[in-house]
Amino acid sequence: MRHLRTPFRIIRENLRAYLVMNALVYAALLLGIAAGLAFPDLYAAQHAVLEETGTEDLIRPLLATPWLFGLTILANNVFRAALLSIVLPSMIVPFSGIALFLYSTFTIGVIVAPVDADTAAVLVPHSVTLLVEFQAYVLLMLGVYLLGQGWLSPASAGADTRRRAYLLGLRRTAWLSLPALALLVAGAVYEALSVIHLM
């Protein structure tokens, strides 16, 4: 039960920051969607990048095997999005992971912009995935926010040194990563099941 109580206690104690992180993430997503709709060249450029980097070519074969597709999505979300974009940068430069992820979220918004009937049809089921997965990232953003806040002002974390505040911030981030991981697993499962439905 402690595994459930502790993360929710951290959220309750930092509710304002949690709500701000939510607002930032979903605002960045909506701005990206609006930009994709308003500027077709930007939308086309983002999709061209996906083709040039081979991202779309890597995804297509996986669609035939939904469980493998789900595992790939989960691995990408945990390692690339959560660890490399949010947590690790913020462990070096306070709050940098928040800025990096907001930029990524804006880019995702541009990519998923419903510019025609086909993309709109895909966005409807995919929006559930976005809501679930982004909630996981919001939890990690809250964790690294508390990490950075404690490093800049140890007293805000109830610590007397930066080192102790940093360790407390890491501990809070670790606790918040538990529900975040559960949400990422749920998002990957839903996305794999939605692929079966769309096929």
UniProtKB/TrEMBL annotation:
Keyword set, alphabetical order: Membrane, Transmembrane, Transmembrane helix
Domain of life: Bacteria
Transmembrane segments: 20-39, 59-79, 91-114, 134-152, 173-193
Full protein name: Stage II sporulation protein M
Species for this entry: Nocardiopsis flavescens
